[in-house]
């Protein structure tokens, strides 16, 4: 057993439609209250919690008095727009009792594909977390057309785990975890307690949704675990109906199915950074800085920078080039273009005199730096 959750600080928790609703009719309020109580405890233990919650369509149907799920997209979207308001109201009411605010963030696939919107979503969510608020994310069902839909919230939750470089993705569902075959169809199905994310054999075991309200079934959850592992997150598919499920996972109880991310978090994260973002500027380094980056993978300090190009902001990906113009590395910059210009070529001592007590000296921290081949 290698569930190493001691250092898992940022959790993305996904609660699926099959769990949230009473047979597709409205929201299961006592269940939601119980999860929120657990989130509040985890937060008090210092964890950062991001919630991805389904349930908008089901809640909307109940409010509108519809007894069967419509098949027309515009009706589903109308139900989602009514239900999303109800869903947030319910979460916020339970969170308020614990003195915490929830925030609503609705995303479409395009928001996480298009670079500018991706960075915006990331900045908003990070700020919300810094403010101690619990973001509650769902797909923007009211406007997402077929082409830009995630469809299921497992994929959305994994992309949010990538976006925020979460340590753990917890997918709460109506089964005890991933079985070697669909337990609704095969009574002798065996629960898998630990697997490797990305193992292709898992896909043949995972079937579609067994309920009228769920979307994607286990197959989207298995894909989600591989996707989350790309940025180094482990995934646990766990029984959302089990008492204190989240607290028990936190305490290390081997509930559900644990997906090992495979590669060390830092290495995975770096690889993901390099593949995911397009560079938005260039930093020119002197020979000394180029050498320490190449040979030691050190952080990039202002003193080694001779010039900067590009209209970049804090958090953007930049290329670092040596005096011959050859790319050495890529990394996430800690300062916007103007602030890099103010700092370039200056020693840490001069910067201290100029800016007083500075908490961030590196222009790019080595954890956010990937050497180019
Ligand atoms: N190998 C499997 N192990 C567990 N559940 C499976 C498996 N294959 C298919 N399923 C089905 O997946 C369902 C859960 O997915 P889904 O209905 O989409 O729930 P959610 O709304 O929580 O995402 C289960 O109820 C089960 O019928
Ligand atoms: N976004 C939709 C839910 C999509 C959905 O059901 O996904 P899942 O919970 O993965 O089965 C809603 O809020 O109704």
TrEMBL record:
Its EC number is 2.7.2.11. SMART domains: PUA. Keywords: Amino-acid biosynthesis, ATP-binding, Cytoplasm, Kinase, Nucleotide-binding, Proline biosynthesis, Transferase. It comes from Acidithiobacillus sulfurivorans. This is Glutamate 5-kinase. One of its GO terms (molecular function) is glutamate 5-kinase activity. Catalyzes the transfer of a phosphate group to glutamate to form L-glutamate 5-phosphate. SUPFAM superfamilies: Carbamate kinase-like (SSF53633), PUA domain-like (SSF88697).
